[in-house]
Amino acid sequence: xxxxxxxxxxxxxxxxxxxxxxxxxxxxxxxxxxxxxxxxxxxxxxxxxxxxxxxxxxxxxxxxxxxxxxxxxxxxxxxxxxxxxxxxxxxxxxxxxxxxxxxxxxxxxxxxxxxxxxxxxxxxxxxxxxxxxxxxxxxxxxxxxxxxxxxxxxxxxxxxxxxxxxxxxxxxxxxxxxxxxxxxxxxxxxxxxxxxxxxxxxxxxxxxxxxxxxxxxxxxxxxxxxxxxxxxxxxxxxxxxxxxxxxxxxxxxxxxxxxxxxxxxxxxxxxxxxxxxxxxxxxxxxxxxxxxxxxxxxxxxxxxxxxxxxxxxxxxxxxxxxxxxxxxxxxxxxxxxxxx
Length: 340
Prior knowledge:
Blueprint: E1 3-8, H1 17-21, E2 27-33, E3 36-41, E4 46-51, H2 57-66, E5 71-75, H3 87-107, E6 112-116, H4 123-135, E7 141-145, E8 147-148, E9 151-152, H5 159-168, E10 171-175, H6 190-209, H7 212-215, E11 220-223, H8 230-243, H9 245-248, E12 264-266, H10 272-282, E13 287-288, H11 304-307, H12 314-329
Parallel strand pairs: 1-5, 5-6, 6-7, 7-10, 10-11, 11-12, 12-13
Antiparallel strand pairs: 2-3, 3-4, 8-9
């Protein structure tokens, strides 16, 4: 089986949030050609061109069938998080996005799994919507940003959220957004090429050094884009932990190496050598096939580099392609049978 742990969807249309809430900054869709739309800031600034497979489940299913993908885990596009807006407005917007995603899953329950979105700038409201996402909408978890308006994920103000997620058994998928150093990475698409991995690394290392995994040992977290550069700088983190404990170990945590096995990463490396190293470091049971579909920087060959990898055995490939994500989401793989 092939279960894509990292794919995105948004509604085909939504009302003007600027008109609804009375201020700007939100994303709108401008459907300018059949099957094509521009994502625009509501001040008229262009953000991204997207195609029908970003909003039409039937178009997504056609791609899945073409590439023998059994199931996709769908979550919103990070630019729609809107953590910067007034919390009650982000809550209402999150409810709209989550209700839409739940309807897509209901229409195709053996092909799609949903991860909700939350108003993370208000922990109480985030917990409220998390409970609804899990207990009412039936989703196994949520996607959150790598920072909350510049606040790293180890901030103690987020502890009630981590506690609620742990209590509910909710899976938390961490996706980079509002990348650090964005003022220096505008040229050459480096905000996405360099900034995204760096941002993900900062999120993961902050949670490690900040003691989040110690305070909430049963937390279920996956970091996107192979954990950024974390697996490849783990030795440096460990060395710094021992060389400068006065700066690194201010929260009385363990050697960063000991946290391997306490979280998952997707396998989006675009490189067979990097993937093999990632599996060696993280363990196959903590690496899950993902694509970042439908965006061009994603793996639009849908895991072919895993399937054709010359140095990974069949059991490891099976683990990456389906078992790891089922473990992360606590779902039964037998629920999903290919019916394309």
